[in-house]
Amino acid sequence: MSKIAAALVCCSLSLVACSQYKADGGKDGQSFAPDPARAFEVSAELTPRAAAKLKALGDNLVIDTSYYGYPTEAAMSKANSLHQIDLGQEKIVVLPPANTAHMLGRMNTKGVADVARGEVMLLVNGYSVTKVGAKDDQVSCNYYRARIDQAQAKPPVLQCDIETP
Fold first, then answer.
1. What is the rounded distance in angstroms from the CA atom of residue 33 to the CA atom of residue 25?
2. Are the beta carbons of 121 and 145 closer than 8 angstroms?
3. CA nearest to 32, candidates 97, 109, 102
4. How far is CA 54 from the centre of its chain?
5. CA–CA gap between residue 30 and residue 5 (Å, rounded)
6. How many other C-beta atoms can be found within 10 angstroms of the C-beta atom of residue 53?
7. Is 104:152 a contact under the CB 8 Å cutoff?
8. Cα–Cα distance, 103 to 83 (Å, whole number)
9. Residue 149: CB partners within 8 Å, gap ≥ 6?
10. Rounded CA gap, 143 and 58, in Å?
11. pLDDT, tens digit, 9 for 90 and up, residues 108-156
12. Can you give the pTM of this predicted structure?
């Protein structure tokens, strides 16, 4: 099965931790098991017109979290082009009107050793997907970027509206 087909199947099922990595250990033996110590809540507030658009299209909203950190001195060679250690991605579909997601902290836990002071960062956003899980750019949300402990202390709220060109 191609990566695109696998992604669509995964996305259409539920999007829980749907990424290029398998939940039970991704590439290079990375572990992506849920980590309750890194779990957090996220919610999305849709404008009335965004909610109406989702309903009219039969679309869903995805909360997409990318986990990363800044490398230790010893791990500089492992950093990506943004000078970050990529710890993976977790996606969860939220169904209106209950636009809340419990992110499981599913990331490359082995990679945290390469992150300075073990401070895991996250970038959270939201966007609409069709019934089969394809991103359709009809509704999008603002980004939230912070340390994971900040998201746990004060759960992020994404503001979502109709995407305009």
1. 7
2. yes
3. 109
4. 20
5. 23
6. 18
7. no
8. 25
9. none
10. 24
11. 999 999 999 999 999 999 999 988 888 888 999 999 999 999 999 999 9
12. 0.80
CB count within 10 Å of CB 14 equals 13
- Distance, CA of 113 to CA of 140 (rounded, Å): 33
- Structure-token pair, residue 12: 């259409």
pLDDT, position 28: 54
Q: With contact defined as beta carbons under 8 Å apart, do 40 and 155 qualify?
A: yes
Tokens standing for residue 152: 């746990």
Q: How confident is the model at residue 95 (pLDDT cuts 50, 70, 90)?
A: confident
Each residue of 1-50: pLDDT tens digit? 333 333 333 433 333 333 333 333 345 555 688 889 999 999 999 999 99
Tokens of 81: 């082009």
Taking the CA of residue 154 as centre, how many other CA atoms within 13 Å lie in the half-sphere pointing to its CB? 7
Residue 71 · residue 65 · CB < 8 Å = no
Neighbouring residues of 81: CB distance < 8 A, sequence distance ≥ 6: none
**Could you tell me if 41 and 84 are in contact, meaning their C-beta atoms sit under 8 angstroms apart?**
no
Q: 74: Cβ–Cβ under 8 A, 6 or more apart, which residues?
A: 114
